[in-house]
Amino acid sequence: MPPKKTSYPKQDIKVLLLEGISPNAVETFRAAGYSNVVTHAKSLPEDELRKAIADAHFVGIRSRTQLSAEVLADAKRLMAIGCFCIGTNQVDLDAAELAGVPVFNAPYSNTRSVAELVLAEAIMLLRGIPQKSAQCHRGGWSKSAAGSHEARGKTLGIVGYGHIGTQVGVLAEGLGMQVVFHDIETKLSLGNARATRDLDELLATSDVVTLHVPETAATRLMFGAPQMAKMKPGAHLINASRGTVVDIDALAAALHSGHIGGAAVDVFPEEPKGNDDPLVSPLLGIDNVILTPHVGGSTLEAQDNIGIEVAAKLVRYSDNGSTLSAVNFPEVTLPEHAGSHRLLHIHRNVPGVLSRVNEIFGQRGINIDGQFLRTDANVGYVVIDVSADDAQATELRAALAAIPGTLRTRVLY
Ligand SMILES: NC(=O)C1=CN([C@@H]2O[C@H](COP(=O)(O)OP(=O)(O)OC[C@H]3O[C@@H](n4cnc5c(N)ncnc54)[C@H](O)[C@@H]3O)[C@@H](O)[C@H]2O)C=CC1
Ligand SMILES: O=C(O)C(=O)COP(=O)(O)O
């Protein structure tokens, strides 16, 4: 059977997937009729990225690819961005919104993977395993209980008590740890976890401190020499959030001085672009540090789920216009629109646009079957379902595009 005629041929819609995104994403696009999927195992250098994105309608990235305002300016056809991960700090979200481009992510699919790794690392650090393992690799043998502790009864301090932080807390309580947390927002404590008065109290009481904040202007270098100095002597630090959160030189110094007893670091201020590039860090060669190559969320379970979840959000936006769960865009949840033509109008949120939109339908005597509108401070997104033929819908779209303040229009049938 020939594919159903659509407003834009699906095989002409280019999907660009970078950074080794799960094959599940490709399958999800193909199953929905999107056959033009281009994949790359790595992130691309900026000049290649700009070329590859120039004719892409959808782009999928992970934490490595930087979609700056400059890169986005070259992406004239881009309809939406999928971050196949949790963090969205690698995208200029405001620039994307003002280009009429919603950004989607997978807010929960790798949460558990990060939490399990962090808990394992807390146990390893409390037992002094990283340095013991390093010694064994060199043919050494230091069988001793000195400096080696059970996790049971120790205090875990969680900075950033969001999805990952709370999961880490629940797992840690299962081991019999005391859990304290600090967050900038008031949070519901799970289990017996307790919010500390402030970060200083958490630092003064924790045997292991683990960071689970997003990368923001406020978290940039939030964990430096002053915070490390306030940790209990010999306490451990885990960072699986973002490399910019910790002053890495200060951490190296605190490890060398022995004030910090050990660390586990998954994220770095400068990460290699791909698996062929070297890691450069002041932490290299320090035995009591577990170094991992940003694999907190890299389990097959998490990646398989993320591939399906984010691809499905992009397909839904393409087919139906729904922006539900977009991180930078007014969220509009839309019903199916079988039997009607759907017009999408993304505009700057300035007075008068909606009345101009409605005038267009009134002037033509076209009845509106359904209308959906959401706005935020920058952008308005209005979706109009009408009973029209293909030619009328195309003409209506052109009229909508001529409204001052319009950022982008689409027609779906
Ligand atoms: N290593 C890896 O592979 C992975 C790393 N991540 C990183 O972990 C971060 C956290 O992920 P989720 O828990 O899902 O995010 P989330 O948004 O659910 O939780 C973050 C928490 O941090 C709090 N927060 C923000 N600024 C803060 C500040 N200045 N001080 C204290 N608390 C603050 C927020 O209020 C929120 O409760 C992500 O943004 C991402 O950067 C996420 C997944 C995998
Ligand atoms: O989900 C996140 O925010 C992560 O940091 C995981 O990033 P990745 O997909 O492994 O590049």
From TrEMBL:
EC number: 1.1.1.399, 1.1.1.95
Xref: Pfam families: 2-Hacid_dh, 2-Hacid_dh_C, ACT_AHAS_ss
Classification via InterPro entries: ACT-like_dom_sf, ACT_dom, AHAS_small-like_ACT, D-iso_2-hydroxyacid_DH_PdxB, D-isomer_2_OHA_DH_cat_dom, D-isomer_DH_CS, D-isomer_DH_CS1, D-isomer_DH_NAD-bd
One biological process term in Gene Ontology: L-serine biosynthetic process
Top-level EC class as recorded in UniProt: oxidoreductase
Highest taxon of source: Bacteria
Record-annotated ACT domain positions: 342-413
A single GO molecular function term of this UniProt record: phosphoglycerate dehydrogenase activity
Catalytic activity of the protein: (2R)-3-phosphoglycerate + NAD(+) = 3-phosphooxypyruvate + NADH + H(+); (R)-2-hydroxyglutarate + NAD(+) = 2-oxoglutarate + NADH + H(+)
PROSITE patterns (alphabetical): ACT, D_2_HYDROXYACID_DH_1, D_2_HYDROXYACID_DH_2
Keywords for this protein: NAD, Oxidoreductase
Pathway: Amino-acid biosynthesis; L-serine biosynthesis; L-serine from 3-phospho-D-glycerate: step 1/3
NCBIfam families: PRK11790.1 (NF008759)
Described purpose of this protein according to its UniProt entry: Catalyzes the reversible oxidation of 3-phospho-D-glycerate to 3-phosphonooxypyruvate, the first step of the phosphorylated L-serine biosynthesis pathway. Also catalyzes the reversible oxidation of 2-hydroxyglutarate to 2-oxoglutarate.
Family: Belongs to the D-isomer specific 2-hydroxyacid dehydrogenase family.
Protein name in UniProt: D-3-phosphoglycerate dehydrogenase
